Amino acid sequence: MSLLVRLAVAFLIGSIPFAVIAMLGTGVDIRKYGSGNPGFNNVLRYSKPRSLVCLAGDAGKGVAAVLALRYPGEGIEVSWLVGLAVMLGHCYSPFLRFNGGKGIATSAGVMLVLHPLLAAVSVLVYVAGRMLGRRKGWIEEGARASLAASALFSVLLLATEGTQQFAYAVALLAIVTWRHKDNLQRIAAARA
Asked: Which among 136, 118, 123 has a CA at the least distance from the CA of 40?
């Protein structure tokens, strides 16, 4: 299978809307509930058990795409390209009129395959950030924790692997940051 076909398949895997799937049977359209974002955090507002389905699906598609679509002996660059394609599919799903989630769980799945130890550290920072943010009453604690964990992953990757993979991690971080632009605007408005 050519690389372009594999990237298209990764995009389609990423576009599976697990937040919508997790809400099946409730009569609730997650795109019209809470923040309107079809992702883990919005499903969490409705139901913790259903949010776990969403989280497993979103992270799982990042894991599955990278594992299934890279070939033995290929350079890490191909895995990163597949990871970026699955992320773009998640964030711009054709099944949701090219809207989608914000990419944190899917990017975590990609990172867990490519660099499990660095990803594990970043996930711990995310969990700690969520807990601290909730305790301190931070506005947009989920976005803050997500972006901090993603940025930390990039910095750790630079320190351990050098600049080549760092560029891919920064691309992943850029997608996640762009998808959180509304959250960042609310944080900035609260500080003003």
From this structure: 123
